[in-house]
Specification:
Helices cover 39% and strands 25% of the residues. It has 158 residues and is α/β, with parallel strands linked by helices. It has one domain: 3-Layer(aba) Sandwich (Glutaredoxin), CATH 3.40.30.10. The strands form 2 sheets. A 5-stranded mixed sheet has the order 5-4-3-6-7. Strands 1-2 form a two-stranded antiparallel ribbon. A hairpin with a 4-residue loop joins strand 6 and strand 7.
Length: 158
């Protein structure tokens, strides 16, 4: 399972390639496929912020609305619509729409359906170190913390 390199831009209009240009040594990627999934993504945010603070930025989090590839005009329309709806500059920096060949993307990440969100712990090379499906639940948070402790013990401090 591997997160593919995808050229994108955040809602501050900064161009980058995910996951290569993400800031954390490890990154919690919150992947959504439907507009109504934002509520599910939001369930992860308090945990993600706390995790980032606890790891002194060793783990960063990002939101990835994921849509089938569109022409550049459609992408501009979608991105600017989202940008208008998100006033917080930090949220804009952390939100990057992925325009993808949906079948290839789902296959690369072994995602079977798009009816819920996925939380993936990835490194900048695209390796997936942990994953969960659906909204945040305390058990998922504990499981991720356990995985991070294993990584810390075997691969050095976050």
């Amino acid at each position: 399972m591997h997160f593919p390199a995808i050229p994108t831009a955040n809602l501050q209009r900064q161009r980058l390639t995910a996951p290569t240009d993400l800031e954390g040594r490890f990154n919690l990627a919150l992947i959504a496929f439907r507009q109504w999934h934002q509520g599910l993504v939001d369930t992860w945010l308090d945990f993600a912020r706390a995790l980032e603070a606890e790891t002194a930025g060793g783990v960063k989090y990002y939101e990835f609305p994921t849509i089938s590839a569109r022409n550049s005009l459609a992408q501009l329309f979608i991105n600017e619509g989202m940008r208008a709806g998100i006033r917080n500059s930090t949220a804009r920096e952390r939100t990057m729409t992925l325009y993808v060949d949906m079948n290839a993307f789902l296959q690369a990440l072994e995602i079977e359906d798009v009816e819920t969100i996925y939380a993936l712990l990835i490194d900048r090379a695209g390796a997936v170190w942990w994953r969960a499906r659906g909204p945040f639940q305390p058990e998922k948070g504990l499981d991720l913390r356990k995985r991070l402790a294993e990584i810390d013990a075997t691969h050095g401090p976050l």
